Amino acid sequence: MATMRESMGFLYQEMHIHIVNWLENKGTLMMHCWSKDNSLGTHYLEYKENFQWQFSNELFFGHTKYECYLEFYNGSLPNRGHFVVYDSKKKTRRRDCFKHCMWGVGVYGLYAFDEIDQRWDYEIPWPSKNTFE
């Protein structure tokens, strides 16, 4: 269950985003993630490494959206994609995440962890405009 807190009359939910490199070719994953207010910088993840961050999401009136640009090489060919990994106002995956939004990045696309069923599901192919409405 999500952790919630109140501040100045507003209700906030603590969210955690996790991205792990599952590239079957064991290549390095380059990622740059950001929101409108915050750049998380560029990171290079080796096979099975992960990057994570957390933030407070104002539940009723705020809008939090994190996007990531991901890139890896499959042989000499680059694979690049822009993905929305969290959006408080729009569905970006088939099953909602409640506290931990976990993404696995593979050669064929992104996998999302389902917190209810406790399993990984293939979600988004490369490249993508991920919206599920």
From TrEMBL:
<keyword id="KW-0713">Self-incompatibility</keyword>
<dbReference type="GO" id="GO:0005576">
    <property type="term" value="C:extracellular region"/>
</dbReference>
<dbReference type="InterPro" id="IPR010264">
    <property type="entry name" value="Self-incomp_S1"/>
</dbReference>
<dbReference type="Pfam" id="PF05938">
    <property type="entry name" value="Self-incomp_S1"/>
</dbReference>
<comment type="similarity">
    <text>Belongs to the plant self-incompatibility (S1) protein family.</text>
</comment>
<keyword id="KW-0732">Signal</keyword>
<protein>
    <recommendedName>
        <fullName>S-protein homolog</fullName>
    </recommendedName>
</protein>
<dbReference type="GO" id="GO:0060320">
    <property type="term" value="P:rejection of self pollen"/>
</dbReference>
<keyword id="KW-0964">Secreted</keyword>
